[in-house]
Structure formats: structure tokens, C-alpha cells
């Protein structure tokens, strides 16, 4: 109950309530972008300062290794499960969404740990950045393989064809995303998307603005150390909680806008959006326990494994896998999994880890 009284969680609830009652409360797009830039910059600085104080330890190596393992296992396992109820392209997109991570969920978890006086390594910000891209790369590889299998019989049956593109537009959180239209039963009616080279996807993933800002700020914090921490404390420390509350207020409004799309989803997909993150977190906790990762780091690994991307993945997948439906993977991650983790997941994972490590 104490976790529900945290100001950040309450502002998120306020945003959801305002959206449900159709209030005219809204956050200007420029302000939303500024808040996301601020949170990433402050988080990177905090991580760099902490890493400068602790250095590269065996615990750091264990957490980074687990991050890579989870970033590969979670999307692959998700694809195998989702392929039973979705078309291949939709399954790849949803698996990428749940195999990647949510920076806002991570930031909220760090604030919760600080409020509970649970220490964690600042290098976990680097772990978060490391876990963001593998799922996207795997999804693109799966989509390329699906296109090759579909193109082979089509080429043999119809030597010369001319297909006009059919494009559907889906409104997600106030932004319009383009996607290939999907027919009933998961059959693509749009032409196959481009077969993108993995090198191009890697370049776009690692030069993405959020990744670059987060890692760049971490390097700056690492280089400047204690002197930089003292100089930036009013910016990256004192303002952080208030900025997070404003951002979660905006996220609450976005969540409320996506709830109608959630109600249209299959019960099987809704079950995956709830149970999948719990299973992913359980896997992270089990592996962290085997390697005796510190409590705070284990909690954050569980949070990252349980989170789902609603920013990075849609930004890449809507172009890399246009055959998939954005309204599907965005509504599940933002309308179901994000609020579940913010309100209940973070305190649950923390309690489970604390009890296991103390026992």
C-alpha cells in the first residue's frame, strides 16, 4: 500500500483518471519531449557518477552478462508463444516490444528503491541501454525470414506482378504511425516490407537519440566523478522527482487514450500482456539469485525483463516491419503492461527479491 502512495504513482493515476473522464488536461508535445530528454540525461549522469565511485567489479560483469542473456531469450521465447495466436509479423513485433525495455519503468523503479533505501549500482543504466536493441534486431531478422518464405512460392506462381501498397494509419498517444494493413486471420494485405540489412538496424539502434543521450551522459558522469556530481546535483538530483511526476502524469493520459484499443484485443493477448512480464521477471530473479547479484541490481534486472517498450520499438518496427499492426503492440505495452508494472510490479519484484536474498 505504501508504494501506491508514492507521488509519482499517484500522478500517473491522476493522468489515467483525467483521460478516462475526458478532461482537457494535456501535456504539450514539446514539454513531453523535454521531460523524456531530461530523465534520460539525469539517469545517465547518475549512472556515470555511481560507476565512477564503484569501478568495474564482478557484480557489474554479472549484471551485464545477464542483461545480454535476457535480451535474447525473452523475445525468442515470446515469439514462439505468440506465433500460436498471431501472424508471423505481428508475433515478431509484439515479441520485440516485450523483449525490449521501458526507460520510464526503469526510472520509476530506481526512485522506488531509493525511497526504500535499497542500494543499486549506477551502471544499471548501461544495462538498460544494452537490453534495448537485441529484441529489435531479432524481430527484423525474423521478419526478413518470413518475407523470404512468402516470396519464394509467390515468385514461382506469378512471374510478373504489380502490387499497389495499402497503408493503414493508427493513432498512438497522439502520434500517427503508418503500418501495413492486415486482413482477418493475420494475412498481410499490404506488400512485404523492405528486407533491411542488420548493419543498418544496428546503426539506427545504437545511434538512436535516446541511446546516445543516455550513454553519453553516463560517460560524462564517469569522467567528471564526484566533482561533476556536486556541480549537477541541483539538476540531476533535486529536480528529478518532480520531473518524473510530470512525465508520469503525461504517461497516464497516454495510457487512458490507449485503453479503447486494449478492449478490442484477444483475451489470449491480454493474458500474455499480464502473465508474460511476470514470467520474464521470474526468470531474471532466478538467474540473478544463482549468480548472487546484489538485491537492488536484481530488482532492476527483474523490472527491465518485465517491462515493454512503447517508444523505441514502435519507432523502428513501424518501418522495419510495416506488415505488423502498431495498434496491437502499442496498446498492449502501454495500456496493460506499463501501468501493471508501475502500480504493482515494481513493489512486487522488490519484495520477492528481498525475501529470497534474506532467506
Extract low-pLDDT stretches. 160-191
Oligomer: single chain
Number of helices: 14
| Share of helical residues | over 70%
Determine the N-to-C terminus distance. Answer: 23 Å
Structure keywords:
mainly alpha; 74% helix; 2 strands; two-stranded antiparallel sheet; transmembrane helix; 359 residues; Na+/H+ antiporter like fold
What does this molecule look like?
There is one protein chain. The protein is mainly alpha-helical and 359 residues long. The protein has a single domain, classed as Up-down Bundle (Na+/H+ antiporter like fold), CATH 1.20.1530. It has helices spanning 7-20, 29-54, 58-82, 88-99, 103-115, 124-132, 134-157, 198-206, 209-238, 240-263, 267-290, 295-306, 312-320, 326-358; strands at 167-172, 175-180. The protein has a two-stranded antiparallel ribbon. β1 and β2 (175-180) form a beta hairpin. α7 packs antiparallel against α8 and α11 (267-290) packs antiparallel against α12. This is Sodium-dependent bicarbonate transport family permease. Pfam families: Sbt_1. The chain crosses the membrane at residues 6-25, 37-57, 63-82, 89-109, 121-143, 268-292, 298-321, 328-349. Keywords: Membrane, Transmembrane, Transmembrane helix.
Amino acid at each position: 500500500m505504501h508504494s501506491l502512495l508514492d507521488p509519482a504513482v499517484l500522478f500517473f493515476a491522476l493522468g489515467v483518471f483525467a483521460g478516462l473522464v475526458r478532461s482537457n488536461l494535456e501535456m504539450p508535445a514539446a514539454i513531453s519531449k523535454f521531460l523524456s530528454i531530461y530523465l534520460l540525461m539525469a539517469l545517465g549522469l547518475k549512472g556515470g557518477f555511481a560507476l565512477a565511485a564503484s569501478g568495474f567489479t564482478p557484480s557489474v560483469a554479472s549484471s551485464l552478462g545477464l542483461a545480454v542473456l535476457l535480451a535474447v531469450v525473452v523475445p525468442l521465447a515470446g515469439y514462439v508463444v505468440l506465433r500460436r495466436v498471431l501472424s508471423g509479423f505481428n508475433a515478431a513485433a509484439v515479441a520485440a516490444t516485450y523483449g525490449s525495455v521501458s526507460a520510464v519503468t526503469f526510472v520509476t523503479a530506481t526512485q522506488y528503491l531509493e525511497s526504500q533505501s535499497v542500494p543499486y549500482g549506477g551502471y544499471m543504466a548501461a544495462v538498460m541501454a544494452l537490453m534495448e536493441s537485441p529484441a529489435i534486431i531479432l524481430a527484423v531478422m525474423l521478419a526478413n525470414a518470413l518475407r523470404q518464405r512468402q516470396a519464394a512460392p509467390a515468385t514461382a506462381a506469378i512471374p510478373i506482378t504489380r502490387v499497389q501498397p495499402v497503408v493503414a494509419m493508427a493513432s498512438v498517444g497522439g502520434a500517427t504511425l503508418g503500418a501495413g494493413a492486415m486482413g482477418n486471420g493475420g494475412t498481410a494485405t499490404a506488400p512485404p516490407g523492405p528486407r533491411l540489412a542488420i548493419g543498418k538496424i544496428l546503426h539506427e539502434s545504437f545511434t538512436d537519440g535516446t541511446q546516445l543521450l543516455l550513454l553519453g551522459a553516463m560517460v560524462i558522469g564517469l569522467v567528471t566523478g564526484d566533482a561533476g556530481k556536486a556541480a549537477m546535483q541541483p539538476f540531476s538530483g533535486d529536480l528529478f522527482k518532480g520531473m518524473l511526476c510530470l512525465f508520469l502524469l503525461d504517461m497516464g493520459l497516454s495510457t487512458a487514450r490507449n485503453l479503447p484499443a486494449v478492449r478490442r484485443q484477444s483475451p489470449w493477448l491480454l493474458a500474455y500482456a499480464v502473465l508474460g512480464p511476470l514470467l520474464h521477471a521470474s526468470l531474471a530473479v532466478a538467474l540473478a539469485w544463482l549468480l548472487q547479484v546484489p538485491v537492488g541490481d536484481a530488482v532492476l534486472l527483474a523490472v527491465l525483463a518485465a517491462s515493454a517498450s512503447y517508444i523505441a520499438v514502435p519507432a523502428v518496427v513501424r518501418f522495419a516491419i510495416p506488415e505488423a499492426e502498431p495498434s496491437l503492440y502499442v496498446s498492449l505495452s502501454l495500456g496493460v503492461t506499463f501501468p501493471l508494472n508501475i502500480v504493482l510490479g515494481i513493489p512486487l519484484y522488490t519484495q520477492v527479491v528481498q525475501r529470497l536474498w534474506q532467506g
